[in-house]
Amino acid sequence: MIALVDCNSFYASCEQVFRPDLRNRPVVVLSNNDGCIIAANKEAKALTDIPMFQPIFKIRNLLDKSDVTYFSSNYTLYSDMSRRVMDTLGMFSPIVEEYSIDESFVDLTLYGKNQLQDLAQTIKNTVHKNTGIPVGVGIAKTKSLAKLANKFAKKIVKNDNVYVVDSEAKRIHLLQQTKVKDIWGIGKKHALRLERIQIKTALDFANMPVAWVRKEMTVIGERLWRELNGIPCLILVTKPEAKKGIGTAKSFGFKLTDYGLIEEACSYYVAEVADLLRQQQSATSLIEISLQTNQHSAIDKQYRNKIQITLDTPTDSTIKLTKEALIGLKKIYKAGFRYKKVGVNLLHIVKRSEIQTNLFATPHKSESDAITQTIDTLNSRFGKNKIKLATVGNREKEWALIKEHRSPRFTTQWNELLTIGGQTGNR
C-alpha cells in the first residue's frame, strides 16, 4: 500500500504557522516581484470576488476590503518547511518519494491492512504537530489510486482529510466519485475525447477495454488504466534523476539600463545554477544567456536576444561558467533599452564522472576543484553567498526582486528568528 501525503494550501500554511493570528482568515501568496496571486488558503478561495493570477495592483482594494493578508513569496521558508515535513514522513517508512515541494508518496509495505486507517490519522496528526502544516492523506494500492484518494479525502468533510482505499468497494466508490478530467495523468485533450464517447468518470475509464486504451492512448494510458484497476505500474522514486537542464530567469525589481547592474544579476544567477549543478554531481558543456525588455510594456522599446556558449570541456566551476556567461552577455547587450529580465540556462549536462577531458585545455588555477570545494564549504557553513565572485557586486537591492510583503525566513536566518515579547521583533 502507498500513501500520498499532500500539504494543504502549502505556501499559505507556511505563513500561518508563524502567524497564529491568521488562523481561519484569508491568506494569499504573491508571485515574484509581488506580481499576482499564486497561492491561497481555503478561506481566501471561498472569496469568489478575489481572482487568482490577477495583477496585485488591480485587486489590492478588493483584498483590503475582504481583510485578506498577502505575502511576498518566501521560497527559502517554504523549502525548509517542506524538508521538515519530509523528515517527519521518514519516521513512518524508509521509502519516501518527494514528488514535489508539498507532496510525497510513502511506502507502507511494513504495515498490515487493519493498521492503515489509524496510521493515516497518525501521519496527519504527527506532521501537524511537528511542523504546524495541515495535510491530507490518501492510501491505496497504487500511486494513481493514492492520488485520487488524497483528493477525495479533502473533498468530503466527513473524511477529515483522510481516505483509505482498503477494499474493492472503496476503490469502485472512489472511481465513481472522480470525473475523468480529474484523473491524475489525463490531459485536457484526452479528457475531452473520453467525454465525447460518454466516458465521464474514472470508473468508466477503468472499465474500458484495455486494447482500446493501449491503441488510442499509448502505453502511458494503459499504465494509468492498470493503476486504476489496482495493478501497480509506477514505482516509488527515492532518488530523483539528475536534471538534463538547469536554469533560472527572474525579472528585475526595476527596469535596468545600467550594464553593470545586469552583469551583477547575471553573475548571481550563474552562481545559483552552478551550485545546483554541483549538488547533483554534474557538469555542463553549454551555457545559454538570454536578455529581454518588458514585453508587456506599451511604452518601452522592445528587444530580446539569447546566445549559447559551447565549452571545450564540461565544467561545474562557478568561476569558469561566470567568465563565459559574461562574454556572451556583452555580445547580446544593446544600449538604449530598459531591460526586465536576464536568464541563465545550463544545457548538455553530463555526470561529473563521465567528463571527456581535453588534452589541449589549460584551465586557470582559479577553476580548480579545490577552490570550488572550498567556496562551497564556506558558504555551507556561514551562509549563502558569503564567498562570491567580485562580479556579483554588492548592489543587489538595485536589481533584486521586489518583496515588500515577505515574511522573515524564520527557520534559516539567525537574525530573522521569531522572538516573543520584548520591544522589537515579531510577536
From TrEMBL:
<dbReference type="InterPro" id="IPR043502">
    <property type="entry name" value="DNA/RNA_pol_sf"/>
</dbReference>
<feature type="domain" description="UmuC">
    <location>
        <begin position="2"/>
        <end position="187"/>
    </location>
</feature>
<keyword id="KW-0227">DNA damage</keyword>
<dbReference type="GO" id="GO:0042276">
    <property type="term" value="P:error-prone translesion synthesis"/>
</dbReference>
<dbReference type="GO" id="GO:0005829">
    <property type="term" value="C:cytosol"/>
</dbReference>
<keyword id="KW-0234">DNA repair</keyword>
<dbReference type="Pfam" id="PF13438">
    <property type="entry name" value="DUF4113"/>
</dbReference>
<dbReference type="InterPro" id="IPR017961">
    <property type="entry name" value="DNA_pol_Y-fam_little_finger"/>
</dbReference>
<dbReference type="InterPro" id="IPR036775">
    <property type="entry name" value="DNA_pol_Y-fam_lit_finger_sf"/>
</dbReference>
<dbReference type="GO" id="GO:0003684">
    <property type="term" value="F:damaged DNA binding"/>
</dbReference>
<dbReference type="GO" id="GO:0003887">
    <property type="term" value="F:DNA-directed DNA polymerase activity"/>
</dbReference>
<dbReference type="GO" id="GO:0009432">
    <property type="term" value="P:SOS response"/>
</dbReference>
<keyword id="KW-0742">SOS response</keyword>
<dbReference type="InterPro" id="IPR043128">
    <property type="entry name" value="Rev_trsase/Diguanyl_cyclase"/>
</dbReference>
<dbReference type="Pfam" id="PF00817">
    <property type="entry name" value="IMS"/>
</dbReference>
<protein>
    <recommendedName>
        <fullName>UmuC domain-containing protein</fullName>
    </recommendedName>
</protein>
<dbReference type="InterPro" id="IPR001126">
    <property type="entry name" value="UmuC"/>
</dbReference>
<dbReference type="InterPro" id="IPR025188">
    <property type="entry name" value="DUF4113"/>
</dbReference>
<dbReference type="GO" id="GO:0006281">
    <property type="term" value="P:DNA repair"/>
</dbReference>
<dbReference type="Pfam" id="PF11799">
    <property type="entry name" value="IMS_C"/>
</dbReference>
<dbReference type="InterPro" id="IPR050116">
    <property type="entry name" value="DNA_polymerase-Y"/>
</dbReference>
<keyword id="KW-0741">SOS mutagenesis</keyword>
